[in-house]
Amino acid sequence: MTSVKPRRSDTTRAAILGAARERFAADGYDRATIRAIAADAGIDPSMVMRYYGNKEKLFAAAADFDLRMPDLAAVPREEAGATLLRHALTRWQDDETMFALMRAGVTNEAAADRLRAIIADQVAPEVAKLCADPAQVPVRAGLVATQLLGLALCRFVVRIPPVSTMSTDDAVRWVGPALQRYLLGD
Fold this sequence. Notes:
Blueprint: H1 8-31, H2 34-41, H3 45-52, H4 55-62, H5 80-92, H6 96-105, H7 109-130, H8 137-157, H9 168-184
Helix pairs in contact: 1-2, 1-4, 1-6, 2-3, 5-9, 6-7, 7-8, 8-9
């Protein structure tokens, strides 16, 4: 049996994406450069352009973020908010892609579009499983996003104490009820 060797282009793409995620997380979208990303990946900048075309397309590829949402319909209804929040905090704790996306989303329309797509494609379907009125799903998903993204920004990016240093359990105790309300109503 022969093993399949990875193609050199796959290895190069992976190196570029890894370097891009780190650079975007460290410098933000505006300050990160193709030249710096290429240097971090140990390749010529022309290779970055060859594979991704431009900085915006590279960012979109690097910011491909899967929330790995829990199935909220499978947990007891009274635990939906706490389950979602605990999952998000654990998932995002050390994820530089999400940090880069949040930083860039404030000033870059492509990044903001990507964040909106993540909410629409990944959060809204889970909210829909719990919401009896389909017309309320976009509003509820948007409000859930305010809590998740706001907490993540304050906790992991801006690092506002004591939010940045409180335990996950404490964060869930404080913010979980708000998520519960947005998910299920009063």
